[in-house]
Amino acid sequence: MVPRRCFDGKAWRLWALVCLVVVMLLPVLTARAEDGPPDIPPMRFVVVRSNAPGCEPNCPEWISADGTIAAGTPALLKRTLKALKGRQLPVVVNSPGGNVDAALALGRMIRKNKLDVAVGMTVFSGCQPEIENCKDNKGNKGKSADYFGIVHDDGAMCNSACPLMFSGGVRRVIGDFGYLGVHQITTIYHREKLLYRTTYRIVNGKKKIISTKVVSRKSAGSYKTYEMSRAVEKTLSAYLREMGIGDGVLEIMKATPASEIRQIPLDAMLTMKLVTSRDAVDVLTTASLCGLGQPATNCREIAGSANKTTPSATLKPMIAVPVQPDAAKAGGDMRFVVVRGSNPLCNPDCPEWISAEGAITGQTPQKLRQLLATLGNRRLPIVISSRGGDLSSALAMGRLVHERKLDIAVARTDFVDCDPGVWNCLATEGAYAGLSIDAGAECDSVCALVFAGGARRLVGPRARLSLYPMGQKLVVKAYLDEMAIGPALFAAVERRSAEGQLDADMMRRVGLTTGPQSVDALTGSTICKAVAKPDNCRGLPAANAQADAPARL
């Protein structure tokens, strides 16, 4: 470099003004995890007042937190809490995950304000948060609330980074039908090209730096890593200890690939102190909280509102998606029965399966849980035929099927000897005799979402599967992503709004079915003769098999 002489107005000094342009590629860590589908909107917070019939004038209220956790989410919660002026309302969260740093900030903010947290889904009456300038509630609001609704836990989720936010609650509840899942963190490194200008002078023959300034930044691409770094692990471990949570949560996160989501069972969450009780979201939001001698802190009484026409008096509680009009024709509520193949060719070792037929209602997930509990570690495929029903219950069922890694096929079961619905029809060795047939079987509407939870998913050429566009689109998209079914299925359904039935080629192309086989691949009379015997095969004593065989013809 050529030295320059600079005159300071008083004396001569010899300066060497050297401008060095330094080009560097620096990895800049973005402390976030790609946990939620990118098309799910960022989390929004709204204060909701219960519209449970008869709760006015004193009704419970809560903060609904729904959506993906983004970098700006903590600022939104801070604004909401500031508007509440010290009122302590529980947070009802439903989120697929998102930014890890933001989730930690949310958890600390929740703990600092001594708030309770529950996994649940808020269903709004009247005004919806996504509708701008909504006035549906204005005529009834007075000093009441902008939003009214109810809460349920069926189909609600708190996945990936969301459990970090959840950990901040003083009381933390999920219940049997909520879903909390974790997996390994995806860390994104962004490369930047930095141009520096460094100015220095020569003092006694040595360079002395005067200043260094970044004059430009340019992106140089990015890369991901799916393994938790020591720094991130240390941060998360310290945070969980701060919140009083056991190390088991972090160990499950590290052991679960980023491409999967592992649900933590309720008993394990209790052991890890991730939840504080077996209660569900109702313990924080039910209307009965406000009828006690000492109402809960989230109750708010509004003088005279009981005599007004309020949403809680005029609107029936909404469900996420109403039971389909034709669901009642499907033979009533869904019935689960363990069936043993009645073809004598299979004796004494025959396949068994779970017959699931009828409408999907609020009680259906619990019925399935109870049946699976009786089976212990046995994994029987599900043979399903249903015309649909309640969305949130279907999501809960699908997650249960996915968790237990059960196979599923669209077909119906024809019972031999007698129908399980008849009072004197008794099971033999824990199962009813029957045959699986795909002719005339159907799996419509939300039944297809239950089907999506299966490990192997089969629809034979004579069976029908139909999926129509439905409400709660973002919830459905997040669920399909959770089941590792790509966005092509959802896009296909949206394009085929006039015709819901999906053909075999399309189902395989979008990943809804796992092969071209029919239900026979799971329940056929010869499958138990294979060298690698399927899990659903069970042998009976030869004497019993011979005695029972004629009755099953």
- Which class of secondary structure composition applies to the elements? alpha/beta
Rg over CA atoms, rounded to whole Å, is: 30 Å
Average pLDDT works out at 79
Cα distance, first to last residue? 100 Å
Helicity level: 10-25%
**Count the strands?**
26
Main sheet? 8 strands, mixed
Strand content: 25-35%
Q: Based on CA inertia axes, which overall geometry fits?
A: globular
Polypeptide structure, described:
There is one protein chain. The protein has 553 residues and is an alpha/beta fold. Helices cover 24% and strands 27% of the residues. Strands 4, 5, 6, 7, 8, 9, 11 and 16 form an eight-stranded mixed sheet that branches. β1 and β2 (12-15) form a beta hairpin. α1 packs parallel to α2 (100-112). It is globular and about 100 Å long. The protein starts with a strand and ends in a 5-residue tail after the last helix. 43% of the residues are buried. The model is unreliable at 1-38, 306-330 and 543-553 (pLDDT under 50).
Short description:
This protein is 24% helix and 27% strand. With 553 residues, it is an alpha/beta fold.
What labels describe this entry?
alpha/beta, 553 residues, 24% helix, globular, disordered N terminus, eight-stranded mixed beta sheet, 17 helices, disordered C terminus, single chain
Secondary-structure map:
Layout: E1 4-7, E2 12-15, E3 20-30, E4 44-50, E5 58-66, H1 73-84, E6 91-94, H2 100-112, E7 117-119, E8 121-125, H3 138-141, E9 147-152, E10 157-159, H4 162-166, E11 172-173, E12 179-182, E13 187-203, E14 206-225, H5 230-242, H6 248-255, E15 262-263, H7 266-271, H8 282-285, E16 299-301, H9 311-314, E17 335-341, E18 349-357, H10 364-375, E19 382-385, H11 391-403, E20 408-410, E21 412-415, E22 432-437, E23 442-444, H12 447-451, E24 457-459, E25 464-466, H13 473-482, H14 487-495, H15 504-509, H16 520-523, E26 537-539, H17 542-548
Parallel strand pairs: 4-9, 5-6, 6-7, 7-11, 10-12, 17-22, 18-19, 19-20, 20-24, 23-25
Antiparallel strand pairs: 1-2, 3-13, 4-5, 5-16, 8-9, 12-15, 13-14, 17-18, 18-26, 21-22
Helix pairs in contact: 1-2, 10-11
